[in-house]
Amino acid sequence: MTDRFDWKTVYDNLHRTFPTHRVQPVIGITGNFGDKGCELAEGYFRSVLEAGGIPIILPPYEDLAALLGTLDRIDGLLLSGGGDINPLYLDENPSPELGNINPRRDLPELLITRLAFDRQIPILGICRGIQVLAAALDGELHQDIGHAIRDKESDWLIKHNQDLPREYASHRVAVEEGSMLADIYGGDLSLFVNSFHHQAVAQPGPHLRVVATAPDGIVEAVESSEHKPILGVQWHPECFILRGDDSHMPIFKWIVDEARAYRETVRLHNRILTLDSHCDTPMFADKGTNFRHRDPQLLVDLHKMTEGHLDASIMVAYLPQGERNAEAYKAVTQETEDLLDYIQWLTDTNRKYIGLARTPDELYRHKRRGRKALMMGIENGYAIGRDLSLISHFRQRGVVYMTLCHNGDNDICDSARGNAEHGGLSPFGREVVAEMNRVGMMVDLSHAAESSFWDALEASRTPIVCSHSSCRALCDHPRNLTDEQMRALAQAGGVMQVTLYNGFLRTDGQATVMDAVRHIEHAVEVMGIEHVGIGTDFDGDGGVPGVASASELLNLTRLLRRKGFTDDQLRLLWGENFLRVMRIVQQYNG
User: Fold this and answer.
1) Which of 287, 364, 453, 574 makes the best surface tag, with the fewest CB within 10 Å?
2) Using the 8-state DSSP alphabet, how is residue 52 labeled?
3) pLDDT tens string 87-105
4) What residue ranges in 143-266 does DSSP mark as E strands?
5) Inter-axis angle of helices 483-491 and 450-459, to 10 degrees?
């Protein structure tokens, strides 16, 4: 046995013992701050190590550049316990019962928690950490538990600050059936926990939900209400390991496993090109937005594309259906030009970070250079009026596809929300499809009536696309495609891009990211993996909890990987299928 002080022998044997090793996920643990500076109780790092992670301590510093740099280097965030949170950060005055606060920790921890949330980094909050989670994600806190429950029947009250040693349990908590927390603990709905806290979560806020309570109703655990790897517990699970009790180790294995999944998902996005085939951000051109900032009005901007690891987006010039006369056609064509000018302006004024692309090769070139990319599309063939020459003009401007109609029949075809004016494609519409084929512009049949779909499928000499549609078998909406349409589209070499619009994912209630996952799974089952993609409809009312903006697209990938999609399959879904069709269309020489 090697002498404990013989460190050189340990060093010499290291690589013989571990010639290769799997890279372990890095868990950043927020450090407490006391008289001697930054400090951390032993149970935190021992639990992370035993769960298979690498613990690093994050001191409480307020340097914003360092905080952002830290998030680039960790795979999971553990918010440790400690003193009360200053109620001024919650826009409250301190109550007489407020305990000791730690002025060094609050601001950096609130910031790093919100920034980690924006980046989809897994988060575990412990004791003070659950309160930081709630405060950072727009929830509310009780400044003092005793004050919060003073009007309750005394028979139900429990002591929330035990005199027992920390490694012993003091009471039970009830866990919600079907919750992520219940799954972590193997379905156990009653847990023995310890208790050393003064504040508590009063309201979890819009991003979290309560999943465990004490007998007196005090919140003991919260988790994401948006299918994200976020969990907070009021007890101290790290203390139990100090006496060899591993009953609470599952919670540390959970954060390490989620951190590993996060790391693998980010690495996948770094390797592949991710393309969103439809977003409506140009609709905000006159709303005073700033694409370079994390703009609260926008679902797609440079910050959110970076946070969600989205490489490229096809931004469309959207034209609502209007009057069909010479004056209206002139006005709508000019509106189209203005919206395309806006997309061009976005790339010109942010050329250090983003570029305009006209071909798949240009998309990949931008990715290799570390830049995001935009492509141009037109939503509603109303943009050309009855002037076929405008198709060539818009293609020369860089437009890669045109959606033949929107919500209303036009001169080209019938809409899914129209009056069946033509019974499908009009004679002029057939000329439009032929001209789009000739100039290398993709024919997009989202929004089209089923009759228009079948006519266009027959008329087009190149594969067609549906840039933002979903499955009618799962959501009976005329905008969605039937299984028969989906099979025919696949047989013709086309693609359907599943959209994230609530009303196209389910007919009742609020859709979530899991509904989007189900539509993708169904489309793949019907069409095959080579004919399905993603077109979010962000900034055009697209986005649902769990994938509500470009910043959350990483969460969609994480959930698809959990469903068993391989990296190669995700590469196809995230753009390569759509780009295959784009290449065929642009290279067509008929």
Assistant:
1) 287
2) T
3) 999 898 988 888 888 888 9
4) 171-175, 190-193, 200-203, 208-213, 219-224, 230-233
5) 10
> Is the per-residue pLDDT at 196 higher than 90?
no
* Domain with residues 26-264, CATH architecture: 3-Layer(aba) Sandwich (3.40)
pLDDT band at 279 (very low <50, low <70, confident <90, very high): very high
Name the amino acid, one letter, at 520: I
106-156 per-position pLDDT tens digit: 999 999 999 999 999 999 999 999 999 999 999 999 998 888 777 666 567
Q: Would you list the domain boundaries of the chain?
A: 26-264, 272-587
Tell how strand 37-39 and strand 32-34 pair up: antiparallel
Q: In sequence order, what are the beta bridge partners of 408?
A: 406
Residue 392 token pair: 């060539």
Phi-psi region of 518 (alpha: psi -120 to 50; beta: other; left: phi over 0): alpha
The neighbour count for residue 120, using CB atoms within 10 Å, is 24
Which secondary structure element, helix H or strand E, spans residue 394, and what is its range?
helix 389-397
User: What does the block give as tokens for 273?
Assistant: 């090109």
CA pseudo-torsion sign 556, 560, 562, 567? negative
| The token pair that represents 354 in the structure block | 């983003």
| Whole-number Å distance between alpha carbons of 295 and 305 | 12
Which residues are CB-contacts of 327 (< 8 A; sequence separation ≥ 6)? none
Range in 171-180, 195-204, 336-345, 462-471 with the lowest mean pLDDT: 195-204
